[in-house]
Amino acid sequence: MSPELVGKIAGVLSFISVVIYIISIFRGATKPNKVTWWIMTFVGGMILTGYLIEMKPENRATIWIPITYVVNPLIIALLSLKYGEKSDKKSFEIDMLCFKISVSSIILWGVLIYLKIDGATLIVLMVNLFSDFVGLYPTIVKSKLRPETEDGPAWMLATIAAAINAFAISKWAFSESVYQIYIITLNGYITYLIFRKQKNNP
To answer: Do 98 and 137 touch, CB atoms closer than 8 A?
Structure first.
């Protein structure tokens, strides 16, 4: 199977995962965290930009996952305005802290890009991944404490899509590999939290 086909399969599965998530939202089962999905939309755009700049031609088949990591969060972010989880005081404080940290990271990303510092590529990538993690943190907490407000199958399919996408890499380089490992790990961890809690509390 060619890397191009593997990459497309991963992209299709990633998009299907968001369709499942959206259906769960409309059913009232999933309550997306507003901060998570808006931050992921902006950070996804930054990561996609860096990915396009640094991506080796041999690894162009892996581009579909980064693309869906902009489109998918944007759709959910828009839906979260109406169907998102209502935060209590503690959750709101966590959301605002994560939002401020991510905005600061985004500003730092812009400064680094503008200054064109030699060797800043790795720093920019780490800043992007850090911002993404901070954005996901409210959903990680929510998945741990209130797993019924997240959709396990959607997160599982997203994890599988990310894992499949790793097989589309023809020539491993740090920028591509660390991103693939990151999304597999984070998606997998959230999936684990959702199903573990649901299993313990049927």
So the answer is: yes
pLDDT digits (tens, 9 = 90+) for 66-103: 888 899 999 999 999 999 987 766 667 777 777 787 77
What secondary structure letter does DSSP report for 38?
H
Nearest to 188, CA basis, from 166, 163, 151, 168: 163
The tokens describing 14, both together, are 């990633």
Q: Which amino acid is at 13?
A: L
Q: Are 66 and 55 in contact (CB under 8 A)?
A: no
131 touches 109 (CB < 8 A): yes
Spatial CA neighbour of 186 closest among 164, 152, 155, 165: 155
* Euclidean distance between CA atoms 168 and 186, whole angstroms: 19
Residues in the chain: 202
pTM value? 0.81
Q: Which residues of the chain have pLDDT under 70?
A: 53-59, 88-91, 113, 116-121, 172-173, 175-176, 197-202
Summarize pLDDT for 48-59 with one digit per residue, the tens. Answer: 877 776 666 666
Distance separating alpha carbons of residues 140 and 73, to the nearest angstrom: 15
